[in-house]
Specification:
By secondary structure, the chain is α/β, with parallel strands linked by helices. Helices cover 30% and strands 21% of the residues. Helix 13 (493-504) crosses helix 23 (744-752) and helix 15 packs across helix 17 (592-604).
Length: 755
């Protein structure tokens, strides 16, 4: 029915009734209490219930009352609610004197979208600091408007018996609040108090209990004195230490075997955030949003030399649980709060795993006896030109639904890629993406991937009729898909990137658009490794219209970790064996003997797959400019180059664009004579932006989408957007999903639209 006059075709009379069905993010966000209060205000009789598909409302009253009720239902819904669809149909007038919240129903066809976990709200925060409140200093305080959601649920509909809180019966006071329509804890499924809720558990690294009167005060003292501890959050554990203590940071890097990769820093409040980072109004709003992501900003004042790994940026975030807030009551300053895991494995979600796997990393562990059913890491974001760009989509943002441009023919499961993995389920025109799973290179990560699959199949009663995976034959996700007895669609990696960006940016069906797809590596249709692509894309296919000149990756996977190998490969293309006589930092780092062996490998094409990757070109530039020769984490070269970029420089290195082929050889030749690394970085990044603008002009494309992990480079993206505005071109930038491989599953679902 038309939202403007939803009762236009209903029977007239003193009393009429409608059945309202609402789908979207409408459970766990205070929607039923909102409906109840709205019904009371408008003198509506009937009931509301959670169902596996969403929320159903039977509403009876006079036509003008129902008109007002339905209008307010759409316009005034709770801040965390998202209504995807609202349908109204005529119903029999119920024989009831009032309006009630009734028991949930578990009908089939689960399409409700789970709300993500949200930071503590202002009301709960006030209770936390009020000595007269019964929840004063209660570290697990929450209400309808905040706290855990996805991380504590076992099944839908979202009711307490289906959550981790089922193990904690409500006390009389909490039960009274739960049943009071005027209380903000009315049907708040995760609510509890010191009398009936979970308890803190403090142990040493061996699992022995530490008995103290005030665990948080005692633990904070250990942190202040340089100890490293594990603390339970909403979706997993953090490893925490004093961010201003050089010795503590040094021990943490040694213990975690993380020599340079930056750590996230949790700060007490906005004032402390602005002490350590440079914020504009948009990034401040992002920092203080209910999602509470880690926000990467320019560093103002250095916490410790060990925090940012030599970069000029810092990742800051605010406390998002009452436990974190209470801990800061006793801390001297900011803390490192990094995911508790081994290397690049998934975040650990129970104290037993923390104590068994991180015994050599942490000195103490603070947990509570509420189970984390579904793990969920912290989200990471930046703000660019008032737009939020997600680098990791997890707590606060996922799971969440994204609308596809039209309906799928059947239920589809998209498996994503093997880096920054997420999965997605698709049904009709709805895509529901999982939180960040991570890199699938270890057995632990692969097991976590399978647990996420099981979670989504259980929560949504989802049985796929088709699988979609990456085209790469050696991906774990590809091999897993081949073992299932289901129809399988393989989607080229960069096409999936492009489709995800198109869906995110609201590009309609039947639209053809240029996609600029630059990343580290993706399996190309010709068997080479793509990564510097211009694709003309539709939802039913693509054409590769331009790409960077391919170059060999000497040693295959080794070249991904050693920029000097990529640099030398480009020099071999330029000068042949004469490159061995060049005055290159790459050659100096490798040594003449190793470089000679690599030249023979280059000559014979041994273990040297061809690549067009812009990500690897960043590595080569970093090597030739003497910035870094070896990588300790993915994307390190680009981040180090960001720190040297000069936004005031308008010049760029030369390049050649011959029909479809883009050749940057002139730039790398000039880098050999560059004595100012910062200038070299700036001219290189400006060149890349100029290439994108040139190809758009060449292909007569007035607009394009950008995608791929290379566009996480803030300097490149800012420069490209600036040049596009100057040339009257329009660049679409995804904001709901990352430009990196965290978006691949969404793009795979979009590809299935045409199958």
């Amino acid at each position: 029915m038309s939202p403007a006059d939803p009762l236009s075709s209903l029977p007239q009379g003193d009393q009429i009734a409608v059945l309202v069905t609402i789908t979207g993010t409408v459970q766990g966000v205070g929607f039923r209490p909102f409906v109840y209060r709205l019904a009371e205000t408008n003198d509506i009789r009937g009931h509301v219930a959670n169902t596996a598909a969403g929320v159903k409302i039977l509403a009876a009253g006079k036509k003008e009352q129902l008109d007002a009720f339905l209008h307010q239902l759409r316009q005034d819904s709770p801040p965390l609610a998202v209504i995807d669809a609202l349908t109204v149909e005529a119903a029999a007038v119920p024989d009831c004197p009032d309006f009630q919240i009734i028991a949930s129903t578990g009908d089939s066809g689960k399409t409700v979208v789970l709300p993500p976990d949200i930071s503590i709200c202002d009301d709960c925060r006030r209770e936390l600091s009020d000595p007269g409140d019964r929840r004063y200093a209660y570290p697990l305080n929450n209400c309808t408007n905040c706290g855990p959601r996805y991380t504590i649920i076992r099944n839908l509909p979202y009711d307490r018996p289906e959550t981790a809180m089922a193990a904690f019966p409500l006390c009389e006071d909490c039960q009274r609040e739960y049943e009071d329509p005027g209380n903000r804890r009315f049907h708040a499924e995760a609510t509890s108090c010191p009398q009936c809720g979970p308890r803190l558990e403090l142990t040493d690294s061996q699992g022995h209990p530490v008995w103290v009167d005030h665990p948080l005060a005692w633990l904070a003292e250990q942190i202040n004195n340089g100890r490293i501890v594990a603390v339970q959050g909403l979706g997993g554990f953090h490893i925490i230490c004093d961010a201003t203590n050089d010795e503590a940071l040094k021990r943490l890097r040694q213990r975690k075997k993380r020599p340079y990769k930056p750590f996230a820093v949790m700060v007490r409040d906005m004032a402390m955030a602005e002490e350590y980072g440079c914020f504009d109004s948009a990034s401040l709003a992002l920092l203080d949003s209910p999602q509470r992501p880690i926000v990467i900003v320019p560093e103002r004042y250095r916490c410790s030399s060990g925090v940012s790994g030599g970069l000029d940026r810092i990742g800051l975030f605010l406390p998002y649980t009452p436990l974190h807030l209470l801990l800061f009551e006793y801390l001297r300053g900011p803390i490192i709060a990094t995911s508790a895991n081994i290397a690049e494995e998934p975040i650990l979600t129970d104290s037993r795993s923390v104590l068994s796997r991180l015994t050599a990393v942490v000195d103490y562990c603070l947990a509570f006896d509420r189970t984390i059913i579904n793990g969920c890491d912290d989200s990471v974001a930046i703000s660019l030109n008032d737009q939020t760009l997600l680098l990791r989509r997890a707590r606060g943002y996922a799971p969440a639904a994204i609308r596809l441009p039209h309906k799928l023919k059947h239920p589809v499961l998209a498996l994503g890629g093997d880096m920054k993995n997420t999965i997605a389920i698709g049904r009709q025109d709805q895509a529901i993406l999982s939180p960040h799973v991570g890199d699938l290179h270890s057995l632990g990560a692969q097991d976590y991937f399978k647990r996420n699959l099981a979670t989504f199949e259980r929560l949504y009663d989802f049985k796929p009729e088709q699988l979609v995976c990456d085209a790469h034959p050696d991906y774990f996700t590809t091999r897993w898909a081949q073992e299932q007895n289901l129809p399988l669609l393989r989607v080229q990696h960069h096409y999936a990137h492009a489709l995800a960006a198109m869906v995110d940016c609201g590009i309609e069906a039947n639209t053809e658009l240029l996609a600029i797809c630059w990343d580290g590596t993706g399996y190309g249709d010709d068997g080479t490794l793509w990564g510097g692509e211009f694709l003309s894309c539709r939802y039913n296919g693509f054409q590769r219209t331009a790409y960077f000149k391919p170059f060999p990756l000497l040693g295959g996977e080794k070249a991904v970790l050693e920029p000097r190998r990529v640099a030398l490969s480009l020099l071999f293309q330029l000068y042949g064996e004469g490159a061995l006589q060049s005055r290159s930092p790459a050659l100096a780092s490798l040594g003449h003997q190793t470089a000679t062996i690599l030249f023979r490998m280059y000559q014979k094409g041994l273990n040297s797959p061809l690549s067009s990757s812009v990500g690897r070109l960043f590595d080569a530039a970093a090597s030739l400019l003497g910035i870094c020769q070896l990588l300790s984490y993915e994307g390190e070269s680009g981040l180090r180059m960001e720190a040297l970029y000069d936004a005031g420089e308008r010049g760029h290195y030369p390049f050649v664009c011959d029909n479809q082929l883009i050749d940057c050889s002139p730039a790398f030749s000039l880098m050999l004579t560059e004595d100012n690394p910062g200038r070299g970085v700036t001219l290189f990044i400006n060149m890349l932006a100029e290439i994108a603008v040139h190809v758009m002009r060449q292909q007569q494309s007035g607009e394009a989408v950008v995608c791929g992990g290379v566009f996480q480079n803030r300097c490149l993206l800012e420069r490209l957007l600036k040049r596009a505005r100057e040339e009257n071109l329009h660049i679409h930038v995804p904001s709901r999903v990352p430009v990196n491989d965290g978006c691949i599953a969404l793009g795979q679902l979009a590809a299935a639209l045409a199958s």
